[in-house]
C-alpha cells in the first residue's frame, strides 16, 4: 500500500506520518516512512540544493528537473523495493507536489510535468493521498515558529521565504487536484490541533482499509 501526504508548509505532514505509521504498525502493517526530496544518498544532496535559501535565483526549470532526478532515485531505491516486499510506504510529498509547486505556482506547463511523470513514474500512483489543508498564513506562521525554535533547520527555508501569493497558488493547486481525483484524495482540515487531525486521518484510513478487505 502506498500512501502519500501533501500540503503546504506548516501543515503537519511529518508529524502525522509518524502517528499514522504507529497506528498501522499496531494493526500489523510493516511501514516505511519516506519523503521527497531527500530519502536516498543522492536525494539528500539534491534536497540541500533545492531547499537552500541562498539558491533564491534558481531557474524554475532547474528546480523541476532536480525534483524529477530525486524522484527517479526515490522510486527505484526506496518505493518500489519496499512495495515489492509487501510493505506499506508512507511518503511526505510525491508527484502531486511537483504539479502544484512547479506547475500551478511556478507556471511551468502542466502537460510537460505530466509527460515527465509518465516517463519516470510508470503509472506508480498512491493508493490514497491525504491533503492536509489550511490557509497558508497559518501554515507559514507555524513553520517559522518551528524554525525559530530549532525544530526545523534554517538551512531549508527557500520555500518558506516565498511570497504569500505563491503559497496561495500552492493551496489552490492542491485543492484543484483533489477535485479531479476525489477517490484518491482525502482533504483533512489541518488548521485544527494535532490530535484532531490525527483522528480524522485515522477515521478516513480505517474506512479505506475496511473497504479493501
From TrEMBL:
Instruction: Cite the source lineage.
Output: Bacteria, Pseudomonadati, Thermodesulfobacteriota, Desulfobacteria, Desulfobacterales
- The broad enzyme category this protein falls into is transferase
What GO biological process terms are annotated to this protein in UniProt? Answer: dTDP biosynthetic process; dTTP biosynthetic process; dUDP biosynthetic process
Question: Which parts of the sequence bind ATP?
Answer: 7-14
Q: Which domain of life is it from?
A: Bacteria
Q: Is-annotated flag, keyword Lipid biosynthesis?
A: no
**Keywords, alphabetical:** ATP-binding, Kinase, Nucleotide biosynthesis, Nucleotide-binding, Transferase
Function noted in UniProt = Phosphorylation of dTMP to form dTDP in both de novo and salvage pathways of dTTP synthesis.
Q: What is this protein called?
A: Thymidylate kinase
Family as reported in the entry's similarity comment: Belongs to the thymidylate kinase family.
Query: Which terms in the Gene Ontology molecular function aspect does this entry carry?
Result: ATP binding; dTMP kinase activity
Any Pfam family hit: Thymidylate_kin
Q: Name one GO cellular component term.
A: cytosol
Record-listed E.C. numbers: 2.7.4.9
Catalysed transformations (reactions)? dTMP + ATP = dTDP + ADP
| Annotated Thymidylate kinase-like domain residues | 5-201
